[in-house]
Design brief:
The protein is mainly beta. It is 10% helix and 57% strand.
Length: 70
Amino acid sequence: MGFDQKALKLVGKRVEVKMFNGLVINGTMSHVSKGYVCFITRFKQADEEKTTFRRLSLRDVTSMVEVQNG
């Protein structure tokens, strides 16, 4: 199974993605489109929760794993 099919199964779930350059991103996968996956990531910064959107190329992804809450 390629990353594109795996990504379609993980849409809407919390996912940890490891990139070719060593970057690890945790977030909710929002959608998959034209070879890219999009994530919603949230982090706290000095009493403020910040939301960012990340668009990643499927070519650069080395692993995708669903994160279990708990």
